[in-house]
Amino acid sequence: MHDGSIVIARPPRAAQLVLLFHGVGSSADNLAPLGGAIAQARPDAFVVSVNGPHPSTLGSGREWFSVVGITEENRPERIAKAMPLFREAVAHWQKASAIGPAATVLVGFSQGAIMALESTQGETQVAPAQRVVAMAGRFAQPVRRAPAGLKFHLIHGEQDAVVPTRSSVEAARELQGAGADVTLDLLPGLGHGIDARALRLAIGYLDGPHRP
Fold this sequence. Notes:
CATH superfamily: Alpha/Beta hydrolase fold, catalytic domain
GO molecular function, one term: hydrolase activity
Helix content: 25-40%
Protein name: Esterase
Number of helices: 5
Keywords: Hydrolase
Strand content: 15-25%
CATH architecture: 3-Layer(aba) Sandwich
Family: Belongs to the AB hydrolase superfamily. AB hydrolase 2 family.
Order of helices and strands: EEHEEEHEHEEHEH
Largest sheet: 7 strands, mixed
CATH class: Alpha Beta
InterPro entries: AB_hydrolase_fold (IPR029058), LYPA1-2/EST-like (IPR050565), PLipase/COase/thioEstase (IPR003140)
Number of domains: 1
Radius of gyration: 16 Å
Shape: globular
CATH topology: Rossmann fold
Structural class: alpha/beta
Number of strands: 9
């Protein structure tokens, strides 16, 4: 399932693993520029743009789960079905980089952000990362837990017509209520996408526990 994933940076002494997860109908190639900017700003980061495991039912690109006929009611089930492959992908790159969850950052956009956020909610599983940077994302259902030591960074365009901005606003409120360490950045004029402001914010949130 790792065919098509792109290793953007593999430093000889990597101190941090940054995994990028694209949106539905997209591919690892689409987040490669973001990965390149991260690698330039964080030369000690092992950076991978992860390809979705399934051909998109939208007709092009890849996906973790189909959005055809998706509703608020069936979204959690689709994500739950997709989650084992997502967590396996994270574990695969942690093994390949010899970097564990404590120095792993999941950076997701849209569907990739949804999967990254939901991967932190497994009741009996250790959180897969130390930070999640979710751009234009949402939880599939209300926040159930806030794993100790896990930091959440939510970035969302105020003009997003695909994933409503309120999704991140509500997620931030729920995470705060659960005792999580969370930041929320709402970007005026940005729709469903990543602009220079979102890129700067994402890079700024990559500081891991190994840095002051």
